[in-house]
Amino acid sequence: MKEKPSKPAPAKSKFREFVEAILTALLIAAFIISFVVQAFKIPSGSMIPTLLVGDHLFVNKFIYGVKLPYFRTTIIPVTDPKREDVIVFIYPEDRSKDFIKRVIGVAGDKIEMKNKKLFINDRPYADPNGHYTDQAIFPAEAQPRDNFGPLVVPQDSFFVMGDNRDHSLDSRFWGFVDLKDVQGKAFILYWSWNHEERNVRWNRIARLIQ
Questions:
Q1: 160-190: per-residue pLDDT in tens?
Q2: Which residues belong to the active site?
Q3: Which of 131, 79, 85 is nearest to 104 (CA)?
Q4: For labelling alongside 97, which of 61, 162, 176, 203 has CA 20 to 30 A away?
Q5: Does the CA dihedral 82-208-171-70 come out positive or negative?
Q6: Terminus-to-terminus CA distance in the chain, angstroms?
Q7: Is the pLDDT of residue 29 over 70?
């Protein structure tokens, strides 16, 4: 007896193909955003002159290890943030916000500031990225902007400051950043919009962040 020819599989509908393509794209995007790279926008001047209001940048999320989303647990360690890295992290005072600052102290470092002069482990620190614009110097009793410490950075924590030292809400005011709250390292500008002059800062696009 001759075998009956098998029926060809029914062709996928156009709608089903469209839905599958969208879902695949969303899964790929979610993977990239969660583990590889994410875009951020600079809303304030706390990192001037390194970063300006209206700068858009990419953050490398893989460089500090692969973390489980929501749990913030590192499952594949790579490396930890180092002094002078510009990092994005969950703001400890409001966990719905992301902040961007520069790492000044790592675990075990002794940090102190005397009249706007930074000391790390009892030695004057060159502070190559510190930018000061206010001539006034506040005593520690008034606020910790210009005088604070000494204090020691705990394990798995970081002391961070904005490059715009006189106009930055940072570790001087609210404490340390926990390693598990670090989102990634800022590494390149992909767009920059000057809100005041309403034009593109073309000379900043594709600039590496240092």
A1: 999 999 999 999 999 999 999 999 999 999 9
A2: 46, 101
A3: 85
A4: 203
A5: negative
A6: 77
A7: no
Q: pTM score, two decimals?
A: 0.83
Tokens standing for residue 133: 């614009």
Q: Could you give the domains of the chain?
A: 14-204 (2.10.109.10)
Q: For residue 180, what are its two tokens? A: 């598990």
pLDDT digits (tens, 9 = 90+) for 93-141: 999 999 999 999 999 999 999 999 999 999 999 999 999 999 999 999 9
Extract the tokens encoding 163.
């490059």
User: Which runs of E-coded beta strand occur in 108-153?
Assistant: 110-114, 117-120, 123-124, 148-152
Q: Which ranges in the chain belong to alpha helices (H)?
A: 14-31, 171-174
- Would you tell me how many other CB atoms lie within 10 Å of the CB of residue 107? 15
Rounded Cα–Cα distance for residues 152 and 169 (Å): 19
Residues 6+ apart with CB under 8 A from 58: 37, 38, 39, 40, 186, 187, 188, 190
